[in-house]
Specification:
alpha+beta, five-stranded mixed beta sheet, Immunoglobulin-like, Transferase(Phosphotransferase), domain 1, disordered C terminus, 515 residues, 24 strands, Phosphorylase Kinase, domain 1, disordered N terminus, 3 domains
């Protein structure tokens, strides 16, 4: 787990878990936080070994009992894979109701940070370096696929780069065992990288779904942007399903014709038309650029041991060895797929996503509906517009609400008493917009004439708490949502041209009880 994401900044906030002992690890500082989990730096004082410890958010567990099952599934998946380019699991367990996963601490940065740095300098990654990094990721994916494991959330922020530029694939929280498990939810993934079949339903994911995501990353590395973007996660997901990707050479004319052909093959809508393995895609890119082709070193049989010691105080899984024969290609079972016209797939996906209302992305950990601790609040935001949606059936009293980026009481804070009437009525939307710009309207708020409760216009984008860029030329990766001085959750910030979504449950208080 990378330690480069604003460690010093996140340590400014009080955290009740810092100093707590979880298994063999004492938490020393917080590294990052998302909707489902927090990640801490920790120390095993017996072995004098540092680790990254992922901890489930307790309020998320209360709101979605399936999260512990997914967390255990992630632990089992990582424990089952021994590969130099896959994060190493140290321990999994539960202490006093706190579920945790201890992993190797990777000192470096993630690929998302590196691509952001390159965009800021208006340069592209060296092709040889890109091929070297992606070769390692492809090797990790093919190894996991051979073990029957589909990652389902391959994206730059889940690819860590250590001090030697070695790639480590991490965050198996959305992992699916092919032909064994069904998904816990309707649609999982990150919209800019999710494959069309996975955008419709996660249990349709196949190994080539991860190959698609790898193709999107290659596209982003070589052009500086992802093929599909939009004003909302749903818009991006529907583009993945039905729209052809812009030809890479239309963005970067220096890309060879052969490379464009391979990228577009990786982004085919039908999985069986893509490269059969991740390494096949990388090899095609290497050949297109005249680079040495990396031999496939995967042995005919992979033996994977799942050590019982890796799991602590949870359901025992024992020690087992799985022998997996590896063929030249990883086939897709014909019975798993029918060739539905893409326009029908898009319509079906739109209906499924609207009705289910639980499409889960990077910054949405997936509490789903049902707020055991209060109304479900959805935040949808881009560079110019921030929308807060009350998904409950009672008004939210906002006087004690506070959004904080960086240090509290700074100029980029936003307090809930600035919302009209100090309240967000049930089913209504509150918006903050850049003065002079047209507000983007999420589907949940349409028509805006009926659903918008109130709006506040701000002048300086670099003081927007949901933006990564700050007025002092720095970048902050998350912002906090506080209520009555208590931290409810943290959400990812967005940079220019990006969009984000985050959910949390409104705290139950005497003034916030469903009527």
């Amino acid at each position: 787990m990378s330690v480069a994401k604003q460690e010093n900044d996140t340590n400014k906030f009080k955290d009740e878990l810092i100093g707590k002992q979880l298994g063999d690890y004492r938490l020393t500082s917080r590294l990052a936080s998302g909707g489902m989990a927090r990640v801490y730096k920790a120390m095993d004082y017996k072995l004098q070994r540092q680790a990254a410890v992922k901890v489930l958010e307790q309020d998320r567990i209360d709101g979605d009992k399936s999260l512990t099952k997914r967390f255990l599934r992630e632990a089992r998946a990582v424990a089952a894979l021994e590969h130099e380019n896959i994060i190493t699991l140290y321990q999994f367990g539960e202490e006093s109701g706190v579920y945790f996963l201890a992993m190797k601490l990777i000192k470096g940065k993630d690929l998302s940070e590196e691509l952001s740095r390159l965009r800021k300098s208006k340069t592209l990654m060296d092709v040889e370096r890109a091929a070297r990094i992606m070769t390692q990721v492809a090797s990790a994916l093919d190894y996991a696929h051979a073990a029957g494991i589909i990652h389902r959330d391959v994206k730059p922020s889940n690819i860590l780069l250590d001090k030697d530029d070695k790639a480590i694939l991490t965050d198996f929280g959305l992992v699916l065992r092919a032909s064994v498990e069904t998904t816990l939810g309707t649609a999982f993934g990150t919209p800019r990288y999710v494959a069309p079949e996975q955008a419709i339903s996660s249990n349709k994911a196949v190994p080539q779904s991860d190959v698609y995501a790898l193709g999107v990353i290659f596209y982003e590395i070589l052009t500086g942007q992802t093929p599909f973007n939009g004003d909302s996660p749903m818009e991006i997901a529907l583009s993945q399903i039905s729209d052809p990707p812009p030809p890479p050479r239309s963005i970067n004319p220096n890309i060879p014709v052969e490379i464009e052909k391979e990228l577009l093959k990786a982004l085919e809508k039908e999985p069986e038309k893509r490269h059969p393995t991740a390494m096949k895609l990388v090899n095609a890119i290497q050949r297109g650029y005249g680079l040495p082709v990396t031999p496939d070193k995967t042995s005919p049989t992979v033996k994977i041991e799942i050590p019982q010691s890796a799991l602590k105080k949870t359901q025992e899984i024992g020690v087992q060895t799985i022998s997996v024969p590896i063929s030249e290609e990883i086939p897709i079972k014909a019975q798993q797929r029918t060739k539905t016209p893409m326009i029908l797939m898009a319509f079906a996906a739109a209906v499924a996503l609207v009705l289910a209302g639980i499409f889960i992305f990077n910054s949405i950990s997936g509490s789903g509906g049902g707020a055991a601790t209060g109304a479900l609040v959805t935040l949808i935001y881009d560079e110019n517009t921030f929308t807060m949606i009350n998904g409950g059936d009672y008004p939210l009293q906002s006087q004690k609400l506070l959004f904080v980026r960086g240090v509290e009481n700074d100029r980029d804070d936003f307090s809930g008493d600035r919302i009209a009437g100090d309240v967000v009525p049930p089913g209504k939307c509150f918006q903050i917009v850049l003065q002079g710009s047209q507000a983007s309207v999420p589907p949940q708020c349409q028509p805006i004439s009926e659903h918008r409760h109130s709006q506040v216009a701000l002048v300086e984008p670099l003081l927007f708490y949901w933006r990564a860029e700050t007025q002092d030329s720095g970048k902050i990766s998350t912002f906090e949502i506080r209520y009555d001085g208590e931290v409810i959750t943290r959400c990812d910030t967005v940079s220019r041209g990006q969009a984000g979504e985050c959910r949390f449950n409104w705290p139950v208080t005497p003034t916030a009880v469903p009527q």
